[in-house]
Amino acid sequence: MHPRSPDDGTPAIATDHHPDHAQATAACKKYGFVATGAARATEWGLILPMVAKG
From start to end of the chain, where are the E strands? Predict the structure, then answer.
């Protein structure tokens, strides 16, 4: 199951989990997410930005 339908008009869906969370990264990749940059620090902690585009 993809996180969204390609026909729903959503241009992109993003996630920003912790880069050390290997299971989250694997799940995101399974559903078509790709990293959009290197891991970076935010006010909420370290994140790995990923996005899925239709």
Answer: 12-15, 34-35, 40-42, 45-47, 50-53
Residue among 22, 39, 19 at smallest CA distance from 30: 22
Report the C-alpha gap between 37 and 39 in whole angstroms. Answer: 7
Please list, in sequence order, all residues whose beta carbon lies within 8 angstroms of the beta carbon of residue 34, skipping any fewer than 6 positions away: 50, 51, 52
Q: What is the pTM of this model?
A: 0.72
Judged against a pLDDT cut of 50, whether residue 48 lies above it is answered with yes
Q: Coil, helix or strand for 3? A: coil
Structure tokens at 29: 């990749």
**Domain spans, the chain:** 12-53
The rounded percent of the chain whose pLDDT value lies above 70 is 83
